[in-house]
Design goal:
The complex is a heterodimer of chains A (270) and B (254). By secondary structure, chain A is mostly helical. Helix content of chain A is 89%, strand content 0%. Chain A has two domains: 1-45; 48-260, Orthogonal Bundle (MetI-like fold), CATH 1.10.3720.10. Chain A has helices spanning 2-17, 19-44, 48-60, 62-94, 97-112, 115-126, 130-154, 158-166, 171-209, 214-223, 227-256, 258-263, 266-269. In chain A, helix 4 (62-94) packs antiparallel against helix 9 (171-209). The longest helix of chain A is centred in the last third of the chain and has 39 residues, at 171-209. With 254 residues, chain B is α/β, with parallel strands linked by helices. Chain B has a domain at 29-56 and 153-254: Rossmann fold, CATH 3.40.50.300. Chain B is built from ten helices and nine strands. Chain B has helices at 2-5, 47-54, 87-91, 93-97, 102-115, 132-144, 162-179, 190-196, 225-238, 250-253; strands spanning 7-18, 21-32, 36-40, 62-67, 72-75, 150-154, 182-186, 199-204, 209-215. In chain B, the strands form two sheets. In chain B, strands 5-6-7-3-8-9 form a six-stranded mixed sheet, sandwiched between helices. In chain B, strands 2-1-4 form a three-stranded antiparallel sheet. The longest helix of chain B has 18 residues, at 162-179. Chain B is globular. Residues 1-5 of chain B have low confidence and may be disordered. Classes of the chains: A mainly alpha (270), B alpha/beta (254). Chain A binds chain B through residues 159-160, 162-169, 173, 177-178, 181, 256-259, 262-263, and chain B through 55-57, 73-74, 76, 78, 80, 82-85, 93-94, 96-98, 125-129, 142, 146, 152.
Chain lengths: 270, 254
């Protein structure tokens, strides 16, 4: 028991420690940004310090938090819906080769229609409401998750399934103990990508459909030609994505993928 | 009834075909309790198919399979371990399927690991961290963890090198003696069949089934290298039953 706790704490420590690398990457980004600021001046690109000061000022007001919450809640709802629908439908379709063949052209159609067109359609169907945002976010990110899960099921290791059957596993047990674990290897990377696109599309939908949230705030600061504030809003959105990705998606993924970590050579691991 | 109770596995009139090509037809085989039967034959003759049918993994086209045993284990040509589970969890997998409680699972998995001389320290490792031999040991422990009274071996040691293969064979022989299970052992290596089995059944694609059988007349204790070699030589040189064993054209089979 003690070993399990220590092991868990060790992995948690390593997770936080790996944050330094992330910080280093962000520092490089900030340096490039500073270069751009010095080349083009305050109006085109405010300095990182000025932007962070503006972000700090924004975060002082309760209104900012409310707007961020509005957008965040919509994006997370859309994300949850995508994760659920993509996972369940992907599993169902992946098991049937015929359904897979039918689904492929449909996916191409859905992915081929630009998100902006979906926003226009959704605005006609749902007006300026949360429904518009949810529809566009789900339509934008669902195909990716769905295709990955279905492909994951289709490429499952049949030898392992046969082994499970030899030891008396029924179809549900095989799904639970073999197929789901295999599919998770593709599901979580797809979710990480879907998460980013859900937030982006949510903000875009808000901006175009004039729905209360960060999108509208962004439109307002654009109208005021307030570049620092525009970038501040972007910083807030990115921060929200960071929180959900490294707070929820990556920890679950790391937990399921411990064996892959074990397979890595030392130099890659640290 | 008395004779029936001694039967661990009975196949009657089993037939199977792949895409219209009949591989097995009218196969009858009886495995007694405490008996290890080796199935030998050239590749593509249906040995693997037969053992899969016997284990209930393939539904035969015709015929019936009667299992007289209570629980079976199976060892495949590749280890077929779950890559995301540790060696211990892999060994305990059949127990997990059977709904055995976690504590007991751990206990029994460790006992099975001891049986195949897996190091306790290796039990926390994932399959990728284990050597080929350790993986196959894990797979054997997984088959033994359910305390089977019948074990299916589907060419389990074909991919291992000579020294490792010997070790694994000794392990199976020792385990069979200790745990007293019957078994059906598919192999294309006649020496392996002579070492581990009590009876050798030869499959032949020309007859689409069993061409004949020979009892290995050497006591288990007396099966040293010289005796095994002599037996194999005499089978191959003098016994017409084994004439076609190494005459396969795999291009035709594939």
């Amino acid at each position: 028991m003690r070993r399990v706790v220590l092991d868990r704490m060790g992995r948690l420590g390593r997770f936080f420690w790996s944050g330094w690398v992330g910080v280093a990457g962000l520092a490089v980004f900030a340096a490039l940004w500073q270069q751009g600021h010095e080349a083009y001046g305050d109006f085109i690109l405010p300095s990182p310090i000025a932007t962070f000061a503006a972000t700090g000022a924004l975060l002082q007001s309760a209104e900012t938090w409310r707007l961020a919450w509005e957008t965040g809640a919509r994006a997370i709802q859309g994300f949850a819906l995508t994760a659920l629908l993509g996972g369940v439908l992907g599993l169902a379709v992946g098991y049937s080769a015929a359904a897979m063949r039918l689904a492929r052209p449909l996916l191409t159609i859905v992915m081929g229609v630009p998100p902006i067109a979906w926003i226009v359609l959704a605005m006609i169907w749902f007006g300026s409401s949360t429904g518009t945002v949810l529809t566009t976010t789900v339509v934008a990110s669902f195909p990716l998750v769905f295709a990955n899960v279905a492909e994951g099921v289709a490429t499952r290791d049949r030898a392992l399934e046969e082994m499970a059957r030899a030891f008396g596993a029924g179809p549900l047990q095989r799904l639970r103990t073999v197929v789901i674990r295999h599919v998770a290897g593709r599901y979580f990377p797809a979710l990480a990508v879907a998460l980013g696109s859900t937030f982006k599309v949510a903000v875009m939908a808000e901006l175009l459909a004039n729905i209360d949230g960060i999108g509208v705030a962004l439109a307002t600061s654009r109208a005021n030609l307030d570049v620092a504030q525009s970038i501040s809003w972007v910083v807030i959105i990115v921060a929200a994505i960071f929180i959900v990705e490294y707070g929820v998606v990556q920890p679950i993924r790391a937990e399921l993928e411990r064996w892959r970590e074990a397979a890595r050579p030392w130099g890659v691991k640290r | 009834m008395g004779g029936e109770a001694m039967t661990a596995l009975l196949l009657e009139g089993v037939a199977h075909a792949y895409f219209g090509r009949t591989v097995l037809d009218g196969v009858a085989l009886r495995v007694a309790e405490d008996e290890i039967v080796a199935l030998v034959g050239p590749s593509g003759c249906g040995k693997s198919t037969l053992v899969h049918i016997a284990a209930g993994l393939i539904e035969p086209l015709r015929g019936r399979v009667v299992a007289g045993y209570r629980r079976h284990g199976m060892i495949f040509q590749e280890p077929r371990l779950l890559p995301w589970a540790t060696a211990e969890d892999n060994i305990a997998y059949p127990l997990r399927l059977a709904g055995v409680a976690r504590g007991e699972r751990r206990e029994r998995a460790r006992r099975a690991a001891d049986l195949v001389s897996l190091d306790r320290r290796d039990l926390d490792k994932y399959p990728v961290e284990l050597s080929g031999g350790m993986r196959q040991r894990t797979a054997i422990a997984r088959a033994l963890v359910v305390e089977p009274d019948f074990v299916f071996f589907d060419e389990p040691f074909t991919a291992l090198d000579v020294a490792l293969k010997r070790q694994m064979q000794d392990l199976v022989i020792a385990a069979a003696r200790q745990a007293r299970f019957a078994g059906l052992f598919v192999t294309h290596d006649l020496a392996e069949a002579v070492r581990v089995s009590d009876r050798i059944v030869v499959l032949d694609e020309r007859v689409r089934g069993i061409a004949g059988e020979r009892f290995v007349g050497i006591a288990h204790g007396a099966r040293d290298d010289a005796a095994v070699f002599a037996a194999v030589q005499s089978y191959l040189k003098e016994d017409p039953l084994f004439r076609h064993l190494h005459e396969t054209d795999e291009r035709r089979v594939a």
